[in-house]
Amino acid sequence: MNTIITIGRQYGSAGHAIGEKVAEYFGIKFYDKEILTRAAKDSGFCEEMIKNHDERPTNSFLYNLVMDTYSFGYNSSSFVDMPISHKVFLAQFDAIKAIAKEGPCVIVGRCSDYALSEFKNTINLFIYADDDFKVKYIMQKDPSITSEAKARELYIKKDKQRQSYYNYYSSKKWGRAETYDLCINSSKLGIDGTVDLIKQYVEDFEKKNG
């Protein structure tokens, strides 16, 4: 096993749970919120600060300047003047690359497919789901959400954040088929069926590229 699997996901599509099961099957590491801990450790930033800016975009700064600064590193003068959200993005970007260099794994969200675009051994997935599935899944995971309207409101808000974040920092479009290698509607197959499909896809990819 030499493949890195990135998973973009709609909120409530069970992307996290699916990623965990895929990682468990292949016996590889799984990263979601763990990326934040790693980014804080490697960059020296406070983990709470990184969590507060996780997958949240800002439009207060030019994208090109971010990438110019990225090429110079943390010590450049423009990095010092950069908004916190951009510093957090760069810290996560570096953490994702460092994690990928350590070996095969599953990484959820945070522009991981874009961060690893130069890595040839990656499979980039996107998990989405129908409205009813997302509403039921969100209410099941969080008993404090007692109405379907609240669940719907939550996933719309979260997906807008994720879309804005991804589209702002990446050169591709969040949720668009051409951005990924495989897009799966988890409400059609269920969690286990989606995991089985991914397992087969990864195994076929390994055979072809092994």
Structure description:
This protein has a single domain, classed as 3-Layer(aba) Sandwich (Rossmann fold), CATH 3.40.50. The chain is an alpha/beta fold and 210 residues long. α1 (15-26) packs parallel to α10 and α2 packs across α6 (84-101). Residues 60-74 have low confidence and may be disordered. The N and C termini lie close together (8 Å). It is built from ten helices and five strands. A five-stranded parallel sheet has the order 2-3-1-4-5, with helices on both faces. The protein has helices at 15-26, 34-43, 47-52, 63-72, 77-80, 84-101, 112-115, 131-141, 148-169, 186-209, and strands at 4-9, 29-31, 105-108, 122-128, 182-185. 36% of the residues are buried. Helix content is 58%, strand content 11%. The longest helix is centred in the last third of the chain and has 24 residues, at 186-209.
> Based on CA inertia axes, which overall geometry fits?
globular
Overall SS class: alpha/beta
Residues in helix, %: 55-70%
In the predicted model, the low-confidence regions spanning at least 5 consecutive residues are 60-74
How many helix segments? 10
User: Which CATH class is shown?
Assistant: Alpha Beta
Can you list the strand order of the major beta sheet?
Answer: 2-3-1-4-5
Q: Can you identify the CATH superfamily?
A: P-loop containing nucleotide triphosphate hydrolases
Total count of strands: 5
Distance between the termini: 8 Å
Computed CA radius of gyration, to the nearest angstrom: 17 Å
Characterize this entry briefly.
This protein is of the alpha/beta class.
